[in-house]
Known about the structure:
By secondary structure, the protein is an all-alpha fold.
Amino acid sequence: MSTCSSCGQRKARRRCPALGQDICPICCGTKRLTEIDCPESCVHLGTARAHPAAVVRKQQERDVAALMPSISHLTERQYQVFFLFQTLIARHKPDGLSRLLDIDVAEASAAAAATLETAARGVIYEHTAAALPAQRLAGEFRALLAEMREAGASVYDREAALVLRAIETGARASGGDTAYLELMGRILQTNRAASRAAAAGAAPAADAPSLIIP
């Protein structure tokens, strides 16, 4: 039996159609749809969706329960903006060797929200975060809003500020350096998998927790 082409350590027991090579079950389960771009035709992907492991379901339930307090007051339109911001955060790459922390997300959201709240009162003033990583992320928030408006989206200052305050609340309540970022990373991954399944016409698992994300 050959060695897993992904980790190079364990025995390869599954054929991976995405890699065109054999991999071990652990790499198949942990790297699915994250490091490995699984095609919809993969039998292991279909099985995992139809019968998610109990530990996966429990984690999804905990993630949804942890997120809901900070976003339960948002409207459907605001959900859309919330997850656009979260996608931006997930893709954000700090300069140098620094890493993005929950406190940076909280401060960036607070600064961007304060700027929008001030503008909604008719005063143009740019609030800035103290830390450089937070300043850069806040700038990306503003750039994304500008792009959305240029594309014809109606995103009002108060509405966007409300969404950013929800992100700030969640990030400040995380209780860890990157707990909120990890939480949102898992939720975005689950949502991507659900979107791909829906596009392929696959039914979601009946017992899987759901968070409706437009």
